[in-house]
Amino acid sequence: MSNENWLIYPTVDLFVYDLADGIGQNEEKISQNRTQFWQKIYGDKISVPQLENLKQAETVTAEYIELLGDKKLAAFESPLDGYAYPVKFGDTYAAQFDLSGKREPDADKRFAPKEIDCLEWLQQQVISRVNPPGTIGQSWLVWGQLTADDQDALATAQKCYSKLNLFPKAKWDRDLKAEGKFLGADFYELWLPPGDRGNIGQNYHVLICLFPYNNGQAIADISETVAKLYVHLMRLFAFRNKVIWAYTQSRQLKADLKDAARTIQQIVTQLPNQVNAPKVDLKELQQSLVKSLTIFSVYANYISKLEEQENIIKTNLKNYKRRLETIGKDMGNDAEAFKFMASFSDFAKEKYVWQAAADNRSLSAGLRLLENAIQTIEGIIEIERAKGDRTLNVTLGAVGVGIATSGVYASVYAGQVAPPKNPMDVNTVFWSSIGWGFLFSALSAMLLIIIGKNRR
What is the predicted pLDDT for the residue at 196? Predict the structure, then answer.
């Protein structure tokens, strides 16, 4: 029997993160977010009054809120030796699920070496509680103490990784991203990021931490050290997962923007034909304008969201780097001590930050292209309307001339004849003047239209 198959007090922790209140979300959506988060802690048994009480916990004025107050933890049902620890910071819900097996009244049995095979069972017990999965992401921590001074930490970590079976088609050499020593323990970070067309559910991350045996160092002391580390990891993993989440969001936005850009290109391509047509179709242009304005509104909203995701990536990446230093200072009195995990920030800076910024710049060009097309269409419509207004003015002018002429005719006619003796003669004068008015109106209109065309 090889020592690499055994650990003292093997423990599995899952850190889960959910969006509490995103930008632009209404109260109904925020309430839905809250319900889904608390279902991870209490399952479907949670009641409306209980949810209302838990909502009140969020009103506490603090940057880091322990949502269960003085109670802090929600213990797993007996005989499981585990708990859930829910908190909220900023716009994010976070929960740690910790499980180390079944409670043993006898300390000797509790801290007796266990086969690494138990990790799979511990993992499944935790996963069964976390439903639905975290909307922002999740990270695993597996830790324990080696059973002998000569036990190979690397070989043991590889066996732990194999038994967890967290990663699809797991490969140690491919997935190992960082390793280092901290607090006397050996740390191994493994990560399989989602592809550019993937989603946050394809983000797999685990940190394996193995403490040395040191001639039987007290596991109680190690547990106390890990408990202090939990507080830091809760935030560190939050920043990490939020960076990845924001990047995956930006990939979907990019896909939507590219679809909209194809529609914009169609509008721009069709525009010369509409402008150079022998007869401009004003109705068709107006429809094109409405379509363009609608796409402009949607496209501008997507661009704004893409900028938002870029800022989220930058902000959380900066916070991730600072937390690495804080962990080093608080836990080891050396700001550089935990920086072996900076490989993530280096990768994210080169890929995520650069790609989001590049996409923002290139896709914003589509917004300017559409804006120019809209201005062109509006200009053509105004020109066509102006032409129509001139024709209308010509017609009104002609009618005015005709009406004036009919008035003059009626006055001249009335001055040349004696006052009518018969009322019917008055009607004859009126209708005669109207008739001459229409005749002069028609002649005037034709003359003004001819003049207008020659001027154009």
Answer: 84
**pLDDT at residue number 351:** 94
Q: Are 16 and 97 in contact (CB under 8 A)?
A: yes
Amino acid identity, residue 300?
A
CB neighbours of 197 closer than 8 A, spacing ≥ 6?
Answer: 251
Of 140, 135, 251, nearest to 201 by C-alpha is 135
Q: Where are the alpha helices (DSSP H) in 96-218?
A: 107-110, 118-127, 153-164, 172-175
- Write out the two tokens for 333: 């009195």
Which tokens belong to 152? 């190979």
Place of tokens 């603090």: 62
Query: 430 is written with which tokens?
Result: 């009126």
Q: Is residue 255 within 8 Å of 363, Cβ to Cβ?
A: no
Cβ of 417: how many Cβ atoms within 10 Å?
Answer: 10
Identify which of 335, 329, 341, 334 has the alpha carbon closest to the alpha carbon of residue 188: 341
Q: Quick one: how far is CA 218 from the chain centroid?
A: 46
Specify whether the CB–CB gap between 397 and 444 falls below 8 A: yes
Cβ atoms < 10 Å from Cβ of 294: 10
**N-terminal to C-terminal alpha carbon distance within the chain:** 101
**Bridge partner residues of 102 (DSSP):** 80
* Structure token pair of residue 72: 């802090």
- Which amino acid does the sequence have at 371? E
CA nearest 401: which of 348, 349, 451?
Answer: 451
CA distances from 57 to 60, 69, 87, 339, 401 (A): 6, 7, 10, 35, 81
Strand residues in 73-136 grouped as ranges (E): 74-75, 80-89, 92-102, 113-115
Q: How far apart are CA 244 and CA 198, in angstroms?
A: 11
Q: List, for residues 172-226, the tens digit of each pLDDT value.
A: 999 999 999 999 999 999 999 998 887 888 999 999 999 999 866 788 899 999 9
The Cβ of residue 59 has, within 10 Å, a number of other Cβ atoms equal to: 7
Tell me, what amino acid is at 285? L
